[in-house]
Design a protein that fits this description.
Length: 371
């Protein structure tokens, strides 16, 4: 790779990051760095409609462009990008379509990753380290290749004033304003990421009794029936969150003391608003995709050699989740709570709420299995 390009003429920037909410949220680590480098430039993001709310209110992004795979052909995407006359396009997604759109964007500076068959599209190429570093560092590598100084390591999410008002009303109705809230998120994009509903119910009962907390079951599209089933299984009736947008969910998580969750978009949302996290992992690797910037603990079934397989279907019966006990997860939570009581939480009050990691990730091993 040659010398970094001359960035002095950049007046308009496009960042491309498609697909999952969590991935888009983790990519917001580039936004303030771009604004600090190009204080007078227009900065746009290109993403898909479900992930667009992640960028709402981001103070470093001037506009969000939507790519709708159902209605837009590749040529439509290319034309839409070319019309904007960007000087710099950074492709953080790097599939064949986004690579081609970057190549034909008309931008004089085109950054992307050295994925097989994609390098023709870019004149600044970063070596991908996605299998070695956290996803946030992967995104920052694209800026490093361009010669952009990394001055900020925060992920950003900004619930609106209306989002806060919506959550205020929910808490007021339930007389929860001064309660210690612990949110449970049993959802996840893949079934292989999901711990059992019965286990979440048992864990919710333990948390309610041991920590004096009010358990709130949070849910997303298509998940309400599942959380209602969890609620019926619990001996101590939990609260079920109302239907929420991403902004409203972010506002609720920000009012909560802790989120217990599978690897999912809400996990990254909680991290962005500064809420500590107890995360349950199996087929994905927490060192690459785990909670970022807040006190957290990760619990896994460490007896297995297939952890981090990244399979959406398990050929051996899903032992990473089915053989992970309630006691193991609860004890991981106990250890995290002890750390929080010692003042390591470090939670910020500002909008955006993400912080550089202050303490190492805690992986709770199988020593509690027979408790």
């Amino acid at each position: 790779m040659g010398a970094p390009p001359d960035l002095g003429s950049v007046r308009k920037v496009l960042v491309i990051k498609l697909r999952a909410i969590g991935d888009v949220l983790l990519s917001t680590i580039v936004t303030k760095n771009l604004r600090l480098t190009f204080p007078g430039a227009i900065i746009h993001y290109l993403t898909e409609r479900p992930s667009a709310p992640v960028l709402q209110g981001n103070p470093f992004v001037d506009g969000v462009k939507i790519y709708d795979r159902a209605t837009m052909h590749g040529l439509d995407l290319i034309k839409a990008i070319r019309r904007e006359r960007y000087d710099l396009v950074i492709d953080l997604f790097g599939n064949p379509r986004t690579a081609l759109a970057t190549r034909l964007s008309g931008a004089s500076i085109r950054g992307g990753f050295r994925f097989r068959g994609r390098t023709y599209a870019y004149n600044v190429v970063a070596t991908p380290r996605g299998n070695r570093v956290h996803n946030t560092e992967f995104n920052l590598d694209a800026l490093r290749a361009l010669g952009i100084e990394i001055q900020d390591r925060t992920i950003y999410f900004t619930p609106s004033a209306n989002d806060e008002t919506y959550v205020d009303a929910f808490l007021k109705r339930g007389r929860l304003a001064w309660k210690r809230l612990v949110c449970l998120n049993a959802g996840g994009g893949w079934y292989t990421k999901k711990w059992g509903a019965d286990r979440f119910a048992a864990l919710g009962d333990l948390i309610t009794k041991a920590w004096g907390a009010t358990v709130v079951l949070v849910w997303g599209p298509g998940e309400k029936e599942a959380v209602e089933r969890i609620g019926r299984m619990m001996r101590r009736t939990p609260l079920i969150a109302p239907s929420t947008t991403l902004g409203q969910l972010g506002a609720l998580l920000r009012r909560s003391f802790l989120l217990v969750t599978n690897d999912s978009g809400p996990m990254h949302l909680a991290a962005a608003v500064g809420t500590p996290i107890l995360a349950i992992f199996g087929p994905t690797n927490p060192k690459l995709q785990g909670p970022y910037g807040v006190p957290h603990a990760v619990v896994r079934n460490e007896s297995l050699t297939c952890l981090g397989c990244n399979l959406v279907k398990c050929p051996i019966g899903h032992p990473c989740m089915l053989n992970l006990s309630v006691d193991e997860v609860f004890m991981a939570g106990e250890e995290l709570m002890a750390r929080l009581k010692q003042g390591v939480r470090g939670r910020g009050k500002g909008v955006g709420g993400g912080h550089p990691v202050r303490n190492p990730q805690s992986t709770i091993r199988n020593r509690h299995r027979h408790r």
